[in-house]
Design goal:
The chain has about 400 residues and is α/β, with parallel strands linked by helices. About 45% of the residues lie in helices and about 15% in strands.
Length: about 400
């Protein structure tokens, strides 16, 4: 991480003069969401120049990747403090790049700890429209102000020119501000969306510990212990673990070595194409929603740094961790958090999600409800919203 300043400062200028759009996405899920927006934009507006601090998905979608920000994502208060100098260097160099090349629009994607500070800096420097400049600064995928830090909405209204949200209830979260907010639908329910997962009664059990290094290091052992207990109790179904990058694969391989009895039962698989499964144990991230929308019976298991967890219990006032459960206001995926994610409990859940016909029927009913909640017309999707931002 000490070479971050050199890596960013040595980047070449935009490929075609002043860029039309700069996207900043610091997590794999945000990188993928933004990439889908770019894929819809470029066929209709091939002359757009798009640069990004993101990951592989944005690069493959046609954006000029300035720096792989997703490879450095962390979660939790403790981890952010440990890497403070690293992120400060990224912030400084990102601002320098923006000040030099002045993109027409900057689209900040989720990742609020970094992106909202960036928006504030651009306001203070007079670069953003809200700060008196010419660069339009917008936000795609709202921070979870409905869970915690609700007062962030006033900060966002002060520094941002527009916001696109992917959950319909989020529009009302900003109704007491003057920030223009649009529900653009969730990309997972759009017609051309290719889900990375599907349900197959003969498929393996899917274990999804997440996409961030620290989270995977904490959650993967929990999932492996639960699966090992399932096998101990007579379970026969093999398991597959999806990983988004080689970095995560290395972490998973290292952890799996601690479970020699699972060596011929667990397959590590790159997150490419469609993987079918009969059930899933997952962290609470983006992939859990993918699984819920695909009709895969499942459960959520999560373990955070103990300090982060204690602070979260104080600050977060929501009934569920999983977004599918929040949208439905019921536990489509039962949640096992911290000590509740014991091997015995997780093993029992594995048997249920794989073998229970009643569990499958309940999952299918709730999957239909989820699709209805998250759908939006093509005239109001994220690409249409971005075209509007570029023309204002």
């Amino acid at each position: 991480m000490s070479n971050t300043k050199l890596q960013i400062a040595s980047l070449s200028p935009p490929v075609s003069g002043q860029p039309d759009l700069l996207i900043v996405a610091g997590e794999h899920s945000g990188d993928q969401q933004a990439a889908r927006m770019v894929k819809r934009l470029l066929p209709q507006h091939s002359d757009l120049s798009i640069a990004a601090l993101g990951g592989d998905a944005l690069a493959k979608a046609g954006a000029q990747l300035l720096f792989d920000l997703t490879s450095s994502s962390v979660v939790g208060i403790v981890e952010v403090i440990r890497n403070y100098r690293f992120f400060r260097n990224i912030m400084d160099e990102t601002i320098h790049w923006i000040d030099t090349y002045r993109p027409r629009v900057i689209c900040l994607v989720d990742y609020p700890g970094f992106n909202l500070r960036l928006a504030e800096k651009l306001y203070q420097m007079g670069i953003s429209q809200k700060g008196g400049g010419e660069v339009r600064v917008v936000y795609y995928i709202s921070p979870q102000i409905w869970a915690w830090k609700a007062k962030r909405r006033f900060t966002m209204a002060r520094y941002l020119d527009g916001l696109a949200v992917i959950f319909p209830f989020e529009v009302d979260c900003y109704k007491d501000t003057d920030l223009p907010v649009s529900f653009v639908g969730h990309p997972f329910v759009e017609k051309n969306y290719e889900s990375p997962v599907g349900w197959n009664p003969s498929g393996p059990l899917m274990l999804l510990p997440g996409s961030r290094k620290v989270a995977v290091s904490r959650i993967a052992p929990v999932l492996f212990k639960g699966y090992a207990q399932y096998l101990k109790e007579g379970g026969k179904v093999k398991a597959v673990v999806l990983y988004p990058s080689d970095t995560i694969k290395e972490i998973l391989s290292s952890i799996l070595k601690q479970f020699p009895d699972l060596s011929d039962k667990v397959t590590l698989m790159k997150q490419e194409g469609v993987v079918e499964a009969s059930g899933v144990l997952t962290s609470s991230g983006t992939m859990s929603l993918n699984c819920a929308l695909a009709g895969i019976p499942g459960a959520i298991a999560y373990r955070a740094n103990p300090i982060t967890y204690r602070l979260g219990r104080i600050l977060v006032k929501i009934p569920y961790l999983g977004i599918n459960n929040l949208l439905l206001d019921e536990a489509m995926y039962p949640e096992f958090i911290q000590g509740a994610a014991s091997p015995k409990k997780l093993a029992a859940e594995i048997f249920s999600v794989i073998e229970s016909d009643e569990r499958l029927k309940e999952t299918r009913v709730m999957t239909k409800r989820l699709h209805s909640i998250l759908r939006q017309s093509s005239e109001k999707n994220s690409a249409a919203w971005m075209v509007q931002q570029l023309t204002e």
